């Protein structure tokens, strides 16, 4: 027989407490969201650039296949082809830049989340335990 009430058993111990070290609960989430959004805008710009490039190609083939003396319609088509070609190049360049920047931003956000560390406290009868985990 023992002289006092029995001590708490492991089943009676409170659950472990997880304490995260500093920072938001999901580090890098804002960078990942911004990266996806920037990448999506880049894809849209790329598609627009390709559209204008194809439109410029169509205007150029229309003027190249024309036989005879050029009039105002052919000059207008040539100017439209040049304009659409320049717009297509600019939009394609911006689209490629947006996709690359979005990918880099997403990668940086994912890297922020990978360097997370945590401390766990687990009280037990007659003491407790502390576990520290981190990723390098």
Describe what you observe in this structure.
The protein is an alpha+beta fold and 136 residues long. The protein has a domain at 28-64 and 78-131. Helices cover 58% and strands 15% of the residues. The protein has 2 helices and 3 strands; from the N terminus they run βααββ. The protein has helices spanning 29-64, 72-114; strands at 17-20, 117-124, 127-134. It has a 3-stranded antiparallel sheet, with no helix packed on it. The longest helix is centred in the C-terminal third of the chain and has 43 residues, at 72-114. The radius of gyration is 32 Å and the shape is rod-shaped. The two termini are 52 Å apart. The relative contact order is 0.22. The model has no long low-confidence stretch (mean pLDDT 81).
Enumerate how many helices there are, as a single number.
2
* Shape by Cα distribution: rod-shaped
Low-confidence stretches: none
Q: What are the secondary-structure elements, in order, as H or E?
A: EHHEE
Measured on Cα atoms, how large is the radius of gyration?
32 Å
Main sheet specs: 3 strands, antiparallel
Number-wise, the strands total: 3
Portion in helices: 55-70%
Q: Biggest sheet: strands side by side, in what order?
A: 1-2-3
- C-alpha end-to-end distance: 52 Å
Please state the average pLDDT score.
81
Q: Which structural class should the secondary elements be placed in?
A: alpha+beta
Beta-strand percent range: 5-15%
List keywords for this structure.
136 residues, alpha+beta, three-stranded antiparallel sheet, 3 strands, 15% strand, rod-shaped
